[in-house]
Design brief:
The chain has seven helices and two strands, in the order ββααααααα. The protein has about 200 residues and is mainly α.
Length: about 200
């Protein structure tokens, strides 16, 4: 996650340190450093889910893979843990964690290849950042209403929307092309999951 920064105008005053919410070097939204790692994470989750356009507009598409990878891993772990508890199946903890992270990596590579062919301007890093932060939706993907996976459906639909918003920003590709790539891969991924159960 982002590292604490100290106000350059007063380097001796450590009480002014803050933990940036956005990834990369740009200092956008902040929460107090003393709030800690998890409050910074929750603030990022809130920003992605509640104000996605603003979040992705402010998100730099460079700055390293570490911060979005940590966000993705933590989101996937929380989802996997809650799912394993809800279904009383500890195996789901490892299965869901692995499949979520692997899915983002594969999707990032495929989307990067396709959008680049369509004139996309970003790199794999920018694509991965968008997909990693969009996985904030898995935090409610484990919810069910009886046999109906309401959380999973909501997570899939809203995740597609977040991907479209973020990818349009970093790649600057036409909306219809972005929608086609994201929706097409989401449907393929959904079909594979249903067929394989993975």
């Amino acid at each position: 996650m982002p590292d604490p920064e100290i106000d350059a105008t007063n380097p001796d005053d450590s009480s002014q340190s803050s933990l940036p919410v956005e990834a990369g070097g740009a200092k956008k939204k902040e929460v107090p450093a003393q709030a800690g790692f998890f409050q910074a994470y929750l603030q990022q989750v809130k920003s992605v889910l509640m104000t996605p356009k603003k979040f992705f507009d402010e998100m730099p598409d460079t700055g390293g893979l570490a911060q979005p990878a940590i966000f993705l891993t933590l989101s996937a772990f929380v989802f996997s843990l809650l799912q394993s508890i809800a279904f009383l199946n500890p195996f789901l903890l490892f299965k869901s964690l692995f499949s979520t992270i692997l899915g983002v990596l594969i999707a990032s590579a495929l989307i990067q290849f396709l959008l680049k062919k369509m004139g996309g301007k970003s790199t794999f890093e920018g694509t991965f950042r968008v997909l990693a932060y969009s996985k904030a939706t898995v935090l409610f993907a484990w919810l069910t209403l009886g046999p109906f996976p309401i959380g999973g459906i909501a997570s899939l639909v809203y995740g597609v929307y977040l991907n479209i918003v973020g990818l349009r920003k970093v790649h600057e590709v036409e909306r219809t092309k972005t929608i086609g790539v994201v929706v097409g891969l989401a449907l393929i991924g959904f079909a594979i999951k249903k067929l394989t159960g993975f």
